[in-house]
Amino acid sequence: MAVLSTVLTVLLSTVAAGSALSQRWLVDAVGLHRTTGIVAAVALGVAAHTLSSTLERVADALRNELVLTTDQALMQEVIGITAGIGTVEHMERPDYLNRLALLRGGAWAIAGSWTSALATVANTFSLLLSLWLLAAVHPALTLLVVATVPTLLAASRARQLAVAARDRVGEAVRRETALHDMFLQPEPAKEVWISGNGAQLDRLARAEWRRARSVEASAQLRGLVWQTAGWACYVAGLAAALWIGATLARHGRATPGDVMLIITLASMLGTQIAGAVGGLDNFAEAGRITEHYLWLQDYATARAGGIQPAPERLTTGIRLHGITFRYPGSATPVLQNIDLDLPAGSTVGLVGVNGAGKSTLVKLLCGFYHPDEGQITVNGTDLRDIDPAAWASRCSGTLQDFAKLQLLVRETVGIGDLNRLDDPAAVQSAIDAAGAHSVVAALPNGRDTQLGPVFNGAELSHGQWQKLALARGRMRQRPLLMVLDEPTAALDPQAEHELFQTFTAQARRAATETGAVIVLVSHRFSTVNLADHIVVLDDGTITERGTHQQLMDLGGHYARLYATQADAYR
Ligand SMILES: Nc1ncnc2c1ncn2[C@@H]1O[C@H](COP(=O)(O)OP(=O)(O)OP(=O)(O)O)[C@@H](O)[C@H]1O
């Protein structure tokens, strides 16, 4: 497509000159009353016009297709690069998100860079051809090109102003999109509706948009002043060229056809310059966007993670050595000086009030984030040195903020282990293990039922979705780390207790094979006391640890909270 569109563009630039020549011949042939000349000039003009409009359409279609295809391939590559980053930390970093937004918004420029470069070359070629034809009438006419220099410089200045403004408003545009997206997605849209905050959110989004637009509009205005000044120079040059043409004709040194040629070519010069500069603009924009792309590549390479394989089984287990962690962009540590031993084959319960840091600890164990200080070791090897994908493939379980994947039931569950996605027995056994059998049995097509209203599928209750998420977490075979981070909030205490009981019983069986560590997070102490070791977190630090009995004997925070909950259920 690129080669064909190059050929067409070159052809088009010569056709433009052919059309100018036909006009000159026509005027001269009319003056000399030469019928054959008139017919030949008209035939050339008609042929040039027909050819140029046909070729232009074909070239346009080709260029669009080329840009679309490249744009699509580029987006796939960006997603691939992003997916290759070992942690999820970048998804919460404004610098990364701004770059990604600029890259996604400007991918068309990279995709169109070939056609932009081509437009510049072709228009420059047409420009040179026009100048050559003008020089044939009188060499002084080539000086018209001098008048184009300020135009080019002014256009370049205008471009710089626009690009700088776009980069400056990247974050405001992202905020506007995020706010307006709240109206378009079912979950936040419900909140917006019930809180009655729609108008206020819309106002905030519009304010962001106006702020961004005013910065960009002011840059555009300044660019326009530059461009107007540049074009004024060109118009002065054009007037001088016409004056030269008229003077030559008055002295009989140019035919009326020559004057016609000067008028046509000199006015075409403006379009050709605009085309060359426009192509250059887009090409430069592609350069700017490519910078973001390269930044993303470097970022991903720097965070590609380790290359060591995950161990076959845990021997010494998982250890946290002096872990301190802050979320991206935050100065306050969420976890501080955590030293914790999770022996192979052990079941560990994490308890603590809201915001104590339990889920954060789980996320660090899964490798979603790396600690700022200290290290997590797996059989003595730093988790940073282990291939993140390999470690992820040996982690299983269900997190607090599970996803409602609107697929077929068997896919929603099966993607917990892609290798066994098409194994009905494996999917069914995960469904049974999670206690989701009755949920699936009640659906019209069982495991083949489409889920979610977005694709006209069955809608489930929150608790039913949770059960499918739990089943998804049961798909992996031979995990080394199994987590259940409060995925059971929609279950009553008895149901949660039973679920944790079957989970720990099955997990313990699996643990004998791989030495897996099982981590349970719950606010319900009756559930957590199923664990061998219990760790109490408070404000990011470990305040108590031991078995249920040891902690009860200690009579501290755990014992007090346990007694309160037991009283409540009595
Ligand atoms: N993505 C994030 N970015 C910034 N801060 C976060 C993020 N997630 C959690 N935090 C902060 O980290 C602290 C610990 O959160 P975490 O979710 O680990 O607590 P938790 O003990 O699991 O609480 P809960 O019982 O409510 O689930 C909280 O103060 C929270 O504000």
UniProtKB/TrEMBL annotation:
GO terms for molecular function: ABC-type transporter activity; ATP binding; ATP hydrolysis activity; ATPase-coupled lipid transmembrane transporter activity. Residues 318-564 form the ABC transporter domain. Keywords: ATP-binding, Membrane, Nucleotide-binding, Transmembrane, Transmembrane helix. SMART domains: AAA. Pfam families: ABC_tran. Residues 100-285 form the ABC transmembrane type-1 domain. The keyword Ubl conjugation does not apply. The chain crosses the membrane at residues 38-55, 101-125, 131-153, 231-249. It is found in: Cell membrane. InterPro entries: AAA+_ATPase, ABC1_TM_dom, ABC1_TM_sf, ABC_transporter-like_ATP-bd, P-loop_NTPase, Type_1_exporter. It is a multi-pass membrane protein. One of its GO terms (cellular component) is plasma membrane. Its main location: membrane. This is ABC transporter permease.
